[in-house]
Design goal:
about 220 residues; alpha/beta; Arc Repressor Mutant, subunit A; four-stranded antiparallel sheet; 8 helices; binds calcium ion
């Protein structure tokens, strides 16, 4: 996830950059409108943190410019102007969220997470891996173009794997994601569902889709 920080106060810009980097985001900091424009021309970003009072212009004009040119990635405005009218103005121009200075890093990180979640929720409605395609809106799954019937629990389980293809997923983590309450969690039941998924998707024994990691959990093979 790449995040652009447009902030002319050097210390604050570096502080935000450090905070985001520690959370494994790829953060770039620029101190002016001009450099923000240049940065956006060079590469794409998943989100932008935008200060309003910049030395060579107003962040709101920059945002207006981006929205007009079709740039619709999420923008979080960061500003000392915290009057209600300013917030409304920012949101009207196309900001997704507004955080008044001073703020805590924790709050900033939480807002960024929420922006990215909404963004990815809006974007990724189809998950795919190998020949499998899952349409999250239509709630359908195909393998090699063939529709596969899944129960809602099997669907949820496959979705967890598709979102984490290649990662080793601990049993408890998988269960937490597919069972609503702790009372319902029975990790032995997970094995039952795994064998159902294998039966539906591992048609070629030479190409297993899931690997059992003994004592840990499961992995969807890359
Ligand atoms: Ca400023």
């Amino acid at each position: 996830m790449k995040i652009l920080i447009v902030e002319d106060e050097r210390r604050l810009g570096q502080f935000i950059k450090k905070g985001l980097t520690e959370q494994s985001y790829t953060a770039t900091w620029v101190p002016s409108c001009k450099e923000a424009r240049d940065a956006l021309c060079e590469t794409g970003y998943d989100a932008i943190i935008l200060d309003l009072g910049l030395p060579d212009g107003d962040g709101l004009d920059l945002l207006r410019e981006w929205r007009r040119s079709g740039f619709n990635e999420p923008v979080l405005i960061l500003s000392a102007r915290d009057a209600v009218e300013d917030r409304i103005k920012g949101l009207d121009v196309g900001a997704d969220d507004y955080l008044a200075k001073p703020f805590s890093l924790e709050e900033l990180l939480a807002r960024v997470r929420s922006l990215l979640r909404r963004q990815s929720g809006a974007k990724e409605t189809v998950l795919s891996h190998r020949a499998i395609r899952m349409d999250l809106l239509a709630r359908t799954v195909t393998a090699g173009g063939q529709a596969i019937e899944l129960t809602s629990r099997e669907f949820a389980l496959l979705e967890v794997f598709l979102q984490n293809a290649g990662r080793i997923l601990p049993r408890t983590l998988i269960c937490e994601k597919i069972w609503e309450s702790h009372y319902d969690i029975d990790t032995n039941l997970l094995d039952v569902y795994m064998s159902k998924l294998r039966g539906k998707f591992e048609l070629d024994p030479a190409k297993p889709l899931f690997k059992t990691i003994r004592g840990v959990g499961y992995q969807m093979m890359p």
